[in-house]
TrEMBL record:
The keyword Metal-binding applies. InterPro entries: Enolase-like_C_sf, Enolase-like_N, Enolase_C-like, Mandelate_racemase_C, Mandelate_racemase_N_dom, RHMD-like. Residues 144-240 form the Mandelate racemase/muconate lactonizing enzyme C-terminal domain. It comes from Aureimonas fodinaquatilis. Its cofactor is Mg(2+). GO terms for biological process: carbohydrate catabolic process. GO terms for molecular function: hydro-lyase activity; magnesium ion binding. This is Mandelate racemase/muconate lactonizing enzyme family protein. CDD domains: MR_like.
Length: 358
């Protein structure tokens, strides 16, 4: 059942108001659909936000990569991933890793569907539920009242942890986290994500004050390339340091792992080259006793997290729920692992009609 057809597409849709930093912010899903000789299909995608860079990813797929997977078998998915990495690595990371991710996810989806299994089971599912935290309703642009209301709403829904974005105005972040803590109580966990906004002095200043508010982890306080900065943060701050959504492969994670400067790794399936690479990162994290909390794309990350017993938390970020036939189910602070064939993601006909641009 070799791959007989591979096509690409783009869905572009508005960002959720509670997550957006600008009123006109948009997401793009740059996708790949593969089909085998028996009519099975598989779907994968990567994403861009805000900058409209999806066209460059699609161009790489259409002009170079997709033709290289036609005629291949789905069981070759990890070999294909490695071949595409070596074929594109002189282009640098970023766009190439994102394009490879869309292909890798699509082939894994196809492979699981051919076997009649959920993706989690095809990866070696170890559990039926994964602890999660509520995310995506904490833009630094939100007024204080909205931030507090939305954070408390997550707890009312049954979440036991929430993530708040910080770093735009560190002095005001203290008040924002203080108000959220007062609203949700002492028991739920609070994670804080600075999205690489801070200088090292500002990160040290803010981190020490967030520790007083019992923040569980401080995510991406500084640029992800600054290993020395992370070393100083790790030695100075009492809470866990998490990072990695802007790291593009297991090879790029290794300096942070060897130096012991990160406690929780946050690989993004859509940025590191897909499911194949994310699983490898998870096994490396396990070997070094580190936590793993896959970034952002919950509908895919749930399958990987279910197959990696050391997964600490899963980010529940329902940014595209309105596009899906089957949104994820959360019960009592945990995401239920879907059991539909493949990753189980199906976009509604309305989503294709409204948001497909290429």
């Amino acid at each position: 059942m070799s791959i007989t057809k591979a096509t690409s597409w783009i869905l572009r849709f508005p960002s959720n108001r509670a997550a957006a930093e600008r009123s006109d912010e948009e997401f793009e899903l740059i996708g790949v659909t593969v089909e085998d000789s028996s009519g099975h299909t598989g779907t994968g995608w990567t994403f861009t936000s805000d900058y409209g860079g999806g066209a460059s990813v699609k161009a790489l797929l259409d002009t170079i990569l997709l033709e290289r997977i036609v005629g291949r078998e789905s069981y070759e998915v990890e070999i294909i991933n490695a071949e595409l990495f070596h074929y594109t690595h002189r282009l640098g990371h970023g766009i190439a890793s994102m394009a490879i991710a869309a292909i890798d996810i699509a082939i894994w989806d196809l492979r699981a569907r051919q076997q009649g299994l959920s993706l989690a089971k095809a990866l070696g599912q170890a559990r039926d539920r994964v602890p999660c935290y509520g995310s995506g309703k904490a833009s630094p642009s939100l007024p204080m009242n909205d931030l507090v209301e939305l954070s408390a709403g997550y707890i009312a829904e049954g979440f036991k942890a929430v993530k708040i974005r910080v770093g735009r105005e560190p002095d005001k972040d203290i008040q924002r986290i203080t108000e959220v803590r007062a609203a949700i109580g002492d028991e739920p966990l609070i994670m804080c994500d600075a999205n690489e906004r801070l200088s090292l002095p500002a990160a040290l200043w803010l981190g020490k004050r967030l520790a007083d508010l019992n923040v569980f982890w401080f995510e991406e306080p500084i640029l992800s390339q600054d290993i020395e900065g992370y070393r100083r943060l790790r030695s100075a701050l009492p809470m866990a340091i998490s990072m990695g959504e802007h790291v593009h492969s297991r090879r790029d994670f290794m300096p942070f792992i060897r130096e012991g400067v990160a406690d929780v790794l946050n690989p993004d399936i859509c940025f590191v080259g897909g499911i194949s690479e994310t699983m490898k990162i998870g096994h490396v994290a396990d070997s070094f006793g580190l936590g793993l909390a896959p970034h952002f794309m919950s509908v895919l990350s749930i399958h990987v997290a279910a197959a990696l017993p050391r997964s600490t938390y899963l980010e529940f970020y329902p940014f595209m729920d309105d596009l899906l036939v089957h949104p994820l189910l959360m019960e009592d602070g945990e995401i239920v692992v879907p059991d539909r064939p493949g990753h189980g993601v199906e976009f509604t006909q309305e989503a294709w009609k409204t948001y497909k641009v290429a």
